[in-house]
Amino acid sequence: MPEGSSQATQGCCDERTSALSLDDAWSHIDQTYVCTLDVFKVPLLGALGHVLGEDVVSPLDLPPFDNSAMDGYAFAHASLDGVPNGRLLRSPERIAAGTKSLLPLDAGNAVRIFTGAPLPQGADTVAMQEHCMATDDSVTVPFDVALGANCRPAGEDVHRGQTVVKQGVRLKPQDLALAAAMGFDRLPIYRPLRVAVLSTGDELNEPGQPRTDHGIYDSNRFGILSSLRWMGLETLDMGIIRDDEDLIASALKDAAEQADLVLTTGGMSVGEEDHVKAAIQRLGGLSFWRINIKPGKPVGIGQVGQTPLIGLPGNPVSALVTFQLIARPVILRLSGCQETRPFSFMVESAFDHVVRSGRREFLRGKILPSQMGQMRVDKFRTDSSGVLSSLVETDGLIDLGEASEVRRGQLVSFMPFGMLR
Predict the structure, then answer these.
(1) How confident is the model over 117-133, as a mean pLDDT?
(2) Contact present, 129 and 149 (Cβ < 8 Å)
(3) Which is it for strands 300-304 and 284-289: parallel, antiparallel or unpaired?
(4) For residue 118, is it left (φ>0), alpha (ψ between -120 and 50) or beta?
(5) Same-domain check for residues 183 and 198
(6) Is this structure's pTM higher than 0.70?
(7) From residue 93, how far is each of 76, 113, 117, 132 by CA, in Å?
(8) What are the tens digits of pLDDT across the range 80-114?
(9) Are the C-beta atoms of residues 300 and 13 closer than 8 Å to each other?
(10) Helix, strand, or coil here: 316?
């Protein structure tokens, strides 16, 4: 198991303790968790979505040779000196991509060339074919064509020895394309983090099974498990654990022995049936508990033995929001990522809102196009943390930060769900 969590401080989780700010929680995560996963090489396509374990350094220039960026005619720009009509003799050669000229190009001559073909010795400029007039023995090129036009010099994109993808990046299709362009067929990645997930609550029923009277189906576990798989991680589904401290402690111990990280949902508040926090403290401890955000205040970070643990709230929206705000940064740190905090950008508000909670609020927001083509965001009709459909009908989270109110037309910070993979 990774040695990623600090020893829990005693007394930090008393209900009288003030809630931690989100920025302080992020700082704690940055300072506490490190990646201890093994690195191994996998085929290029198998690396997609995983975290790069070593820098990718280019073994060659890219492109590896000077080449033409267009179909046209290659020549030495100096050949135009004293040739006011731009008429050059036409070489009998024809250079296509994947071939090369067998002879250097003489001054005053031009040769037919195609996109991607290497420039012949002596050529430094290419005129686009649609700008040229060709006959069997000559070609007229624009006299005002610039030196080096339509030429791609060797190393224009990447130089030999250059670091092109840095360790700690979650590999995207464009990263794999660049690695392939440099000839790599395998890449070093960190072993995917193994995360155990369990739900707690006597009211929970498994989807597909009969629902008990006054019971509900467990949605949190499936939202969390699918979020983890979307991130390319290994998951262990530990099922539903009833509201019994001994059962919960046994399940946590079992999960910690099998996984690199344990995630729980529910049982993190202060009610008489909230047993998860007590079970965690029996087996390890909590580094902090309660964050000054809405939704999702009762969320904690700690460990069971030496295995890191994150306790998420039981309300469906709170569970998924705190997964993105707290669990995801921890997971990315443990996975070897360098960038861990959620991505956001500013967008115009299409709503008025007054903050009454005294907490940093995250509203669910829907992106709307304006008449001018600029983006605006409108808030969902309710702030309730039990309305799971709000996450389906919106595009992301509106971070109100320290604002006490927001007015229509004001810029607000927006975290799109699509960027949280």
Answers:
(1) 96
(2) no
(3) antiparallel
(4) beta
(5) no
(6) yes
(7) 16, 9, 13, 17
(8) 998 878 999 999 899 999 998 888 899 999 999 99
(9) yes
(10) helix
